[in-house]
Amino acid sequence: MTGRVVEAVVFDVNETLFSLERLGPAFADAGVDPGLVPLWFARLLRDGFALTAMGRYAPFADLAADALRSVAPASADDAVAVVLNGFRQLDPHPDVAPAFEILHTTGVPAVTLTNGGTDLVQHLLQRAGLSRYVQRCLSVDAIRRWKPAPEPYQYAATELGIDPYRLALVASHPWDCAGAHQAGLRAGWVNRRGESWPHVFPTPDATGADLPAVITGLLDRA
To answer: For residues 97 and 17, what is the distance between their CA atoms, to the nearest angstrom?
Structure first.
């Protein structure tokens, strides 16, 4: 162990580590307006959250396909396949490698926890040359509950053998940070767009405009 309060950092994946910008061209290739990407992703998350609240579950890819058909009803199976394949082309934000390097240097493990699948995350990390920094890739598929329900965060702590209080979740989504905080984890919010934090959620333990600032903030609080 590191002797720090934060003994490991678990990262959200979509929008936190990897930008969704490459999905715009994938939408265009599928004959769908690229401007629909934000609405599509919001509906995808909405439906995952709703299923979790109902005690039900569906994998990320299934909900992604349904959400695409909801925003672009004329989408055929081949268009859906083009968009889903676009996820395999996502690029990391430029601040990801520097943040991972900070953790690597300080001996704090980096882990991912996604509402998607681990195979895709592993592919993206390898494609970006970042896999050497990440100790584990975890997915809600293992427990069939989407973040921000408490079970995914508790699952990550159990898998890593760490007290939840000593595990920090880093995400660009306030709802993800709030879910982690509610489950007993520390939380770091990367606020790349200069947005206001929702007052209905508990304040994150660290906030920064980029990932290195968030990581530094979390480690400095330890």
So the answer is: 9
